[in-house]
Amino acid sequence: MTSAQAEKAEKERQIRDHKIAIEYKHLRVHAPGGVYILPAVDPRTGAADVRHYHGVVFVRRGPYANGVFKFRIRLPPRYNDIGTYPSVRFVSYVYSPHVHPGTGELDVRTAYPGWSPRRHYLVTVLTFIKKVFYVKSFDGTDNESSRPAVANPDARDLHRSDPAAYRRKVEECVRDSQRQMYVNEPGSTFKFSEEGEAVKVLRGLLLGNGSDGGEEGGQVGAVTQTSISLDDILGAVAEASEMIGKRRPN
User: Fold this and answer.
1) Mind listing the domains of the chain with CATH numbers?
2) Beta bridge partners of 106
């Protein structure tokens, strides 16, 4: 590659990275409730890597209620061109017809057979990540799932033939996600730690325990500048402090 070609390639990379940064900024307003991502850190430079994200989804309702599922997103070098699918892999174990049982890979291609830069973005991926925890059918016969799930056909078939057994497997993966919540993946920009009663109460408030909001209602999960406003944080902290005060004896 000549110096002119290298310069052209670098300029193109910078333009693509800038477009990704705009998409990421867009998530501050348009990310689905309960789903959060943060850029990974490039170990070579210490800078944010806009093509690699660590994420977490907090599930509030349905079979996966109270699950905390961690995942990664990787964007290919030529994202966002036609057919340049993001790769989504769950770090937490997820028992779902849409998730490969061995690799944790989310089957994005079945949901979007033709990836188009005019219609598909990071927010598209996050919306699908959330949707897989609420969808009620996996055989392509209703409006929630236009194509059969193929990543885990055994789970799809069990959902159809023995719903009770399927539900037990889902509940076990939810419990596993809770047990593994404080096991932080090396290099992840999301860090979970237990820090006493205040944090537990605050987490309960952020998860919406006791609220009447729907699956879209409220902000949940890790506190990040990309998904929860300062007012949200201060309000939750104040409410947590008040609740702790009421619990303590006079």
Assistant:
1) 8-184 (3.10.110.10)
2) 99
